[in-house]
Amino acid sequence: MIRIGLTGGIAAGKSTVAARLRDLGAVHIDYDAIAHAITAPGGAALPAIARAFGADAIAADGSLDRAWMAAHVFGAEAAPGARERLDAIEHPIIYDEARRWEEHAVAAARDVARESGERPIVVVHDVPLLAEVIDDIPFRFDHIVTVEAPEATRIARMERTRGMTRGQAEARIRHQSTRAEREAIADTVIDSTQSIERMFDEVDRLYAAWSAERKGQ
């Protein structure tokens, strides 16, 4: 197995790269999907979130009220330390779930590989906030990739595809690591402003190199 950390700024194109890696055969551990699962109705993080932030943080359907939480963690109404309190609740649960996802997915992939003789298993941990948690996350990565685009491009994408105002988009960017911080932990930077064909060619080459690297050990 080779473990890859995949990160990137919000709306930089990370999901497109992740989808290509899945198509190539990588096991994909999606931390955003895990975060949604643990804050869905009955989710493991909800009781502690309600204690820390109050009943208003929970929507009528029993899930996390994401609009309320975004305003109170990232917006002008955010109290000092709100982001840190939320992270302290969610991150340990997310890491435990990520390990379970990895164990189950890798076990299944190994069964297939034994039967087909396919190349070594590439496991991609898709972690939007990897630069912020790199010292605390209980995984070590053989390689780290960050997907990047200029801030103006990302803001335009959030306005166009996510229905955010410019102010909301800028607030999200302010509450994430900087491009320099992400690039400091990465050994590969993918520019998502290039054509999709060129970007996919780059991802394909990376995947082939990772597979060959592990197979040769």
Layout of secondary structure:
Blueprint: E1 2-8, H1 14-24, E2 27-30, H2 31-38, H3 46-53, H4 66-73, H5 82-116, E3 122-126, H6 130-133, E4 143-148, H7 151-161, H8 166-174, H9 179-185, E5 188-191, H10 196-215
Parallel strand pairs: 1-3, 1-4, 2-3, 4-5
Helix pairs in contact: 1-10, 2-5, 7-8
- Mean pLDDT across all residues, rounded? 92
User: What overall form do the CA principal axes indicate?
Assistant: globular
Our Rg estimate from Cα atoms comes to: 18 Å
CATH architecture: 3-Layer(aba) Sandwich
What is the helix fraction of residues, given as a range?
55-70%
Oligomer: single chain
Termini Cα gap: 11 Å
Class based on secondary structure composition and strand pairing:
alpha/beta
Largest sheet: 5 strands, parallel
Count of β-strands: 5
Q: In terms of per-residue confidence, which ranges show pLDDT below 50 for 5 or more consecutive residues?
A: none
Assign the CATH class. Answer: Alpha Beta
Question: Reading side by side through the largest sheet, how are the strands ordered?
Answer: 2-3-1-4-5
Q: Count of helices?
A: 10
Question: How many domains make up the 3D coordinates?
Answer: 1
Would you tell me which CATH topology applies?
A: Rossmann fold
